[in-house]
Amino acid sequence: MQKIIWSCGLALFCVATSLAAAVPPPSPPVATPKATNTSSVLAAAKQAGVLRVATEPDFPPLYWVDEQGKEQGFEYEMAQLLAQALGIPKVELVEDDYDKLPALAQEGKADIFMAGYVPDNAIEGVEWSDSYLDFGLCLIVPKGSPVKTIKQLKGKTIGAYDDPAALRWIDANIPDHGALKTYMGPGWLYHVDNREVDAAIYDYPLAVEEIKAFGRLQIAAFNLNESSYAVGFKAGNPDLQQALNAAIKTIEATDAYAALMKKYMPVTISNDVPEGSATYTIQPGDTLGKIAVAKLGTATAWKALWELNKNRVPNPNLLETGDILIMPNAAEKGTP
């Protein structure tokens, strides 16, 4: 009986072996091309018809809700313009603390974030648009102070918001300053108003709003450096980056953009100029480019005009009829 079982088993093994030999080996797996990213942030936002914008609440002049419950702010209206340019009909705000906004984009809880962010490569997992607001740090002093420029801060006590980038700039550009005191939270300019410090260094877009509460303070100089705010979004979305950059470029070229700056960041420019300076008074419809063509013969000379006046004017879009510009032949005298 065991011989029969063994014989049958051997026969079956032989048959199976023959069949296996007759069947050709399977073809190697074919590499399939990677699928295109059909679930990009931009595509998803367009499909949903909603651009989710992460922002910090109660952050004037960038974003806040007024006493009537109406949403206001430069970035709030800028977000509406961006959504319109991207072909997205609705904006939905996602509010959270400033330092938590990048994570909302990384985790897919927001499409973009805007809250006065200077592009920072140290924030992992996000990328940045081009600038939607160019600005600089400004010098804030009590009215009547002899301090007009940062050169006069030698040995002086300086106050600053606890922002690493601003603190680095102060140490690098005012190396002989006295004590440097840092503050956080709204109303910190009180320390300048109360003469606890001799001067303050602060972002212009924020200073222009917060200084309103302190009638004894003034901005002595603008654009101490060159900085900008940009839109942040989850890394790996080049289509969104390209679309945002195109939208920002288009928006910045419009009268609506200049009107937006004047609405939320107004400034009264001092018409005091160094004695003997050549000057020009802004006329209706003037821009730096038009003035450069008319007075200097080329539109590219607007940069020379800007260099002469940037410590007096926070942004070219804020020039008003009647403002006085220092003209190029007073270069040495017109620069603080």
Description:
With 336 residues, this protein is α/β, with parallel strands linked by helices. It folds into 3 domains: 41-133 and 229-264, Periplasmic binding protein-like II (D-Maltodextrin-Binding Protein, domain 2), CATH 3.40.190.10; 137-225, D-Maltodextrin-Binding Protein, domain 2; 279-334, LysM domain (Membrane-bound Lytic Murein Transglycosylase D, Chain A). The protein contains 12 helices and 14 strands. A 5-stranded mixed sheet has the order 9-8-10-7-11. Strands 4-1-5 form a 3-stranded parallel sheet. The protein is globular and about 60 Å long. The N and C termini lie far apart (113 Å). Residues 1-24, 30-38 and 330-336 have low confidence and may be disordered. Residues 1-21 form the signal peptide. Belongs to the bacterial solute-binding protein 3 family. Keywords: Signal. This is LysM domain-containing protein.
Structural topology:
Blueprint: H1 2-22, H2 41-48, E1 50-55, E2 64-65, E3 71-72, H3 74-86, E4 90-95, H4 101-106, E5 112-113, E6 126-135, E7 137-142, E8 158-161, H5 164-173, E9 180-183, H6 190-193, E10 199-203, H7 204-210, E11 217-221, E12 227-234, H8 238-252, H9 255-264, E13 279-281, H10 288-296, H11 302-309, E14 324-326, H12 331-334
Parallel strand pairs: 1-4, 1-5, 8-9, 8-10
Antiparallel strand pairs: 2-3, 6-12, 7-10, 7-11, 13-14
Helix pairs in contact: 3-8, 10-11
Pfam family, one: SBP_bac_3
Keywords: Signal
InterPro entries: LysM, LysM_dom_sf, Solute-binding_3/MltF_N
